[in-house]
Amino acid sequence: VSRQLKEEIRRGFAGLEDPLAGLLAMLESSSDWKGKGHSLGYYITSELQLWIKEHPAGPQSGIQLKKLQARVLGILSQCPANLLDPLISIYQLHTADRNYLLEHVSHLYLKGSYKEAAILSMKLKLQPDQDVEKMCTPLLLQDKANMVEDYVGEYPELQSKLLQILDTWCEPSFNIRDITRPYQGLSRCKAEKFNRRTLSKLVFRLLDRFNVDPALCPNVINQRHLRTLNYLFYKRFVEKTMTEENWADHIQSTVGENRWLQGHLIQLLVRHCGERAAARWARHWGVPVDMLPPGLAEQLPEPHTQERIEEVTKADNYEDSKKKDYYQLPIPRENIHLLQTWEETLQCWEKVLQPGQVVGIDMEWKPSFGMVGKPRVALLQMAVKDEVFLLDLPRLLEQAEVEGEKEKLPRFMQKLYSDADITKLGYGMSGDLSSLAATCSALKDTEKQQHGVVDLLTVDKQVDGLSPEHSHEERGARQPEKGLSLLVQHVLGKPLDKTEQLSNWEKRPLREEQILYA
DNA sequence: ACGTGGTGCGACTTACACAA
DNA sequence: TTGTGTAAGTCGCACCACGT
């Protein structure tokens, strides 16, 4: 749009006695303002906004402005979105009578223009005087969670209130249909997608985004932990890829002192591994007798040392039988160093930071399993040609804290990642780095300035695309191996043993199996 | 289980040419 | 000059595959 047009517009304003009324007359007269984007109306309106800034007229007479405001509201409900801000500013709607504005918005709402009502409310900052539940429900049904986020974005009280409402929707006895029924006729309403699963996802997003106390949403938290329990049982008894020890550890930290979860755990135990094991766990927490399924209570006082031993040896045999079929690093055990002091670590760094060095990098952390917050790296592995270093990160960082040398690790990592003459080798390294950033806030921007990094995940993808003849010749049965393990199987003949992948990497001392896996 | 990063598809804008 | 219709570009979302 030419400068000419703008000048012409301005001349027009100067000629009018009351430009504000003039603009309204213009907008009203052309009834169909379907012109999206940069229409003439938009240009004129935004020019007027600038013009007013340059020619601050004295305060308008109150009554006259009120009349104009009444008229502009009629336009607001029809005009394109990009006119909203200029119009609100020009006619100073934020100074208008709130009750009047609220009434107008509620009119929009009753018309079924829920989105428009919400947008206008946000622009006019009307949220504190509105009912969060009423305003947000139709938006949520229309899958507009983002808008809901924005709607409560600046009001912590509304955030808490909204989260509490969402949590009550997740109560076991609550019927979500009660919420959706009034809005049945809603366009693109996805009532069937509106279940507890998506709700709890939303709740966690909001909890994270607004830093609200998770205790406000007990139902959602409980359900999340229950899902974790189900998953752990699946891993242990269906997929059979988790050892008794790792499984028990995760069960323990998921259930904790929560009676409700303890009850569910007992039921799962009865189903998957019999009443004796269930009774043992029930005893362990002192679960009240009336919470137990009938028939289980009698087994409580039973001595259980014998079964325990039995079970552990069974697990051991199960381990041994499988172990030989997996690939193992051809590095003698004495060249695998677990580093727990800075003195040893500095020696390791000296070897790693050689020009031209090639170093393999990987990290381990405790699986999140529904815990809030991002995981912290518990072990940092680095390998050169025939030596492996395992850095006990929690311990080293703690020591550095005491000695006031917090920058030690970040400085090393920066140097390592930015040096193009040192090749960093890994598999799916972006995940490692993001966990590392959560562990050590000084390393947030390491990702941007990295040189000499080779990620075998991407290499694998490219090579795999060129030579697809591997896959279906060997056997009709699909290989369960995937990811790095599959790659190792292709290149080195045998897959990897991933049993320790989901173990508790924060627990010390590390078990020998964990060290070998690392 | 969760978190992340990449991918593909559809919805939604934006840009532009053209007819009225 | 305006509004319309089509083409191109963005954005967002669901999905998958992988990590712990």
From TrEMBL:
<protein>
    <submittedName>
        <fullName>MUT7 Exonuclease</fullName>
    </submittedName>
</protein>
<dbReference type="GO" id="GO:0006139">
    <property type="term" value="P:nucleobase-containing compound metabolic process"/>
</dbReference>
<dbReference type="GO" id="GO:0008408">
    <property type="term" value="F:3'-5' exonuclease activity"/>
</dbReference>
<dbReference type="InterPro" id="IPR002562">
    <property type="entry name" value="3'-5'_exonuclease_dom"/>
</dbReference>
<dbReference type="InterPro" id="IPR036397">
    <property type="entry name" value="RNaseH_sf"/>
</dbReference>
<dbReference type="InterPro" id="IPR012337">
    <property type="entry name" value="RNaseH-like_sf"/>
</dbReference>
<dbReference type="GO" id="GO:0003676">
    <property type="term" value="F:nucleic acid binding"/>
</dbReference>
<feature type="domain" description="3'-5' exonuclease">
    <location>
        <begin position="343"/>
        <end position="518"/>
    </location>
</feature>
<dbReference type="InterPro" id="IPR037432">
    <property type="entry name" value="Mut-7_DEDDy_dom"/>
</dbReference>
<keyword id="KW-0540">Nuclease</keyword>
<keyword id="KW-0378">Hydrolase</keyword>
<dbReference type="Pfam" id="PF01612">
    <property type="entry name" value="DNA_pol_A_exo1"/>
</dbReference>
<keyword id="KW-0269">Exonuclease</keyword>
<dbReference type="InterPro" id="IPR052408">
    <property type="entry name" value="Exonuclease_MUT-7-like"/>
</dbReference>
